[in-house]
Amino acid sequence: MKLSLQLKLGQHLAMTPQLQQAIKLLQLSNFDLHQEVVQMLESNPMLELEEAANEQEKEFSAQVTVSENWQDHYPSTWGGSSWHGEPFDFEAGSSEEDSLQDHLLWQLNLTPMSDRDRSIALAIIDAIDVNGMLSVDLDSILAGFDPESQVGPDEALAVLHRIQQFDPIGVGSRNLAECLLLQLDQITNPELERPTAHAKVLVKDHLELLASHDYSQLKRRTRLHEAELGESIRLIESLNPRPGAHISPATAGYVVPDVIVSRDAVSGAWRVDLNPDSAPRIRINQDYAALASRSGNGDDMSYLRSNLQEARWFLKSLQSRNETLMKVATKIVEHQQDFLENGEEAMKPLVLHDIAEAVDMHESTISRVTTQKYMHTPRGVFELKYFFSSHVSTASGGECSSTAIRAIIRKLVAEENASKPLSDSKITALLQQRGINVARRTIAKYRESLSIPPSNERKRLAPPATG
Predict the structure, then answer these.
(1) Which of 54, 241, 246, 294 has its Cα between 20 and 30 A from that of 107?
(2) What pLDDT is stored for residue 83 in this prediction?
(3) Burial 85-99 (b: 16+ CB within 10 A, else e)
(4) Distances in Å between the alpha carbon of 214 and those of 15, 220, 354, 457, 460?
(5) What is the pLDDT of residue 11?
(6) Torsion-angle region of 349 (φ positive above 0: left; ψ -120 to 50: alpha; else: beta)
(7) For the segment 437-460, what is each residue's pLDDT rounded down to a tens digit?
(8) Residue 97: pLDDT band by 50, 70, 90 thresholds?
């Protein structure tokens, strides 16, 4: 075969390092972006943070002259007292919260108990989960003791009963029924004596019927009138099935919005701005940049120039990210103005293709921009993906957003008669009256996504009439 050289013209997309970096920054969340900026600041000497001047310090330094005594402005001592002369509470500044185990161990230390019983109590407390329930049975706890200690089931049960009297009431329960009964035993109000007795019977013997809201069977088996049954059920509903949950609440997660939506007070138009607290403020160090601009071909100069070029690429990628985020957020606000003014029921259908076509970008780019990016609006903080939803056809030939349908379902359920809750078929009929054609199975899917139980589980007995 004869070898030959051929020249061909063609086009192809090359993923340059600059393009890869821009795509990477585009899909990062606010937190991840800050981590990336910190890493770049540590590795590239050409970049530095823009230190915003403290206006209060400026004002203070302008007022204080060299001849003035600094003790007139600052306290002479900074010890165990605050500026106002009050003792400083160091514990108030601690953000660490006691766990449920810490709370129970504190009570155990105040309870007179033998060393043998205390070791059993420690094992039981260690087996209590965050909700206050005993996560394993007593036999498994006893299996962890040395057989020579001869710790018996009756002894472990006696210690468990003592722990179940600790705060919060119901802690250390082995099941839901025991948890509720422990709380009912603590009710001493004479006016609630009969409802409490009936509630104990319901919890002890008819908990499954109570969970399924089968009130007709409950009335037949307990022979209680509807008013008596309703009063006992409301008493049970006032109890806490997870008594330990409030001792060590879950840590709240805070979201820093990327963009802020507000309404202009004069024109009334909606405006979109980047959150100044979320965008990292970095710049090129002019002193190092001046060194890199000098003539020279040494290793030091090559190092400075390569880092200067990398810093410029990084700043350009950050600027491109902000510009793309602003374009997408602005188009979303333009499309969802009715939501901002009237709420979820006015949400319009929106897909990635609509925004991609409006800003002349690819759908994959829009998907990266809207992932883990948040928008602060007068109605709350939402992820950008929240504003995208599928649509359902209406009787007039239009479209209705699935988010709006969910909002309507939530409103209908909130306003329903608790003694005669709306079934999925009834909700379907009510939506058809509004011109929204949705199948019953679709209503069931939307209802489940809202964590709304079916109608038979939402049924409640009507409270007794007063007067």
Answers:
(1) 241
(2) 39
(3) eeeeeeeeeeeeeee
(4) 64, 10, 49, 9, 10
(5) 75
(6) beta
(7) 888 999 999 999 999 999 888 888
(8) low
How many H-runs (helices) and E-runs (strands) does the chain carry?
Answer: 21, 8
C-alpha dist (Å) from residue 38 to 88, 154, 161, 166, 307: 34, 60, 54, 48, 15
Task: Report yes or no: 134 and 127 within 8 Å, Cβ to Cβ.
Answer: yes
Task: Provide CB contacts within 8 A for 343, sequence distance 6+.
Answer: 379, 407
DSSP 282: E
Could you give the strand order of the β-sheet that contains 374-377, starting from the edge strand earlier in sequence? 270-274, 259-263, 374-377, 380-383
Going along 193-327, which residue ranges are E strands?
A: 259-263, 270-274, 282-284
Structure tokens at 324: 């793309």
| DSSP codes of every residue in 45-90 | TTEEE-----HHHHHHHHH--TTS-GGGTS-S--SSB-TTSPBP-T
Q: What percent of the chain has pLDDT over 70?
A: 86
Contacts of 246 (CB under 8 A, 6+ apart): 168, 240
Mean pLDDT, range 260-272, rounded to an integer: 90
Q: Which residues have C-beta within 8 Å of that of residue 184, sequence separation ≥ 6?
A: 196, 199, 200, 203, 235, 236, 239
Question: Parallel, antiparallel, or unpaired for β 270-274 and 380-383?
Answer: unpaired
Burial of 120 by CB count in 10 Å (0-12 exposed, 13-18 middle, 19+ buried)? buried
Asked if residue 15 has pLDDT above 70, the reply is no
193-249: per-residue pLDDT in tens?
999 999 999 999 999 999 888 888 999 999 999 889 999 999 999 999 999 988 866
For 67, the token pair is 């001849």
Residue 422 tokens, joined: 């709306």
- Position of tokens 């006691």? 98
